[in-house]
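Researcher: Structure for this, please.
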Amino acid sequence: MKQFRHNIIRAGLDALYFTGAYHVLRPIFSGIGTIFMLHNVKPARPDAFQPNRHLEVTPDFLRATLRHLRAQDIDIITMDELHRRLTAREFGRRFACITLDDGYRDNRDFALPVFEEFQAPFTVYVASDFAQGNGRLWWITLERLIAQTDTIETEIGGVEVRLDASTPAAKQDAFDQLHDLMRALPNGDDLPRAMSALCARYRTDQTAIGRELCLPWDELRSFAEHPLVTIGCHSITHCILAKQHEALAAHELTISRARIEAHLQRDVLHLAYPYGDRASAGPREYELARQAGYRTAVTTRPGMLFAGVADHLTALPRVSLNGNYQDDRILPVLTSGAATAMWNRFRRVDAA
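Model: Predicted structure, token format:
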């Protein structure tokens, strides 16, 4: 089902490109700017089973993106400058912000050199538990666990699950089913509890994967000193905030910020909601972010920026640079706003 969805999205992007429709739609739907969303930037992997491929782009695709933005005479700016322009209602030039979620080492090792080539600033949103070394990258853990076995047996939400994982296709199906089941669990602590049980059964250390892949405080400190880098907050545990009691959701937003500021000795003024979709962050979370003092907060809801978002600074949309669609010809379609306009049924602001 997910592959079918990917195929439909790709077909839509190709149609907008080959028909030239994006040229016609750009003046109407490109808006005043774009916030691009990435996670991992690293060389392509040859593995047949890569369920998290959508979260990974290559340095070459990042380079192509920045080259395209420069060629379009789009300003690449910091989140601080975005906040200034939106609050000042300064919409004379189109702009783009580049953001990366979670705080991976590859952001420094592979992404930073590309940003330096273009002297392009970017923001990395850090989950403090990942920097602390006790965070749980459960989606990557799930991928690695399934990659190493031919059958998955576990209990999720009181239901015993047994899935074939003997081939790459079966592994993909198993991942999709388990991922969806865990994301659908109703309570805030259900997902980590289910993953802990699964890891205990298969003798997998979740926190070791986080320590392997994420920047710890000492490395993050030197990374944050780079003039192109802004560090933002991504909560403490990377939980689904909308499923937490309000006090705990507020704690995730305030304590993580305080920890990052204490370790890095710099202000943290910008937030990315974990997961960031409609089921994970909504009006309550937008208000909590505002009360916590964040200047901006970004979602994963797809969309370009229009003047109206200046009234919703803690509900900003982003455009994903998706690893499934790493094709240079997609870039002018994305920056035209045509794809997100169709996705949003031509609404310009989606903050409800």
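Researcher: Any notable elements?
Model: The chain is about 45% helix and 15% strand. Residues 246-264 form the longest helix (19 residues).
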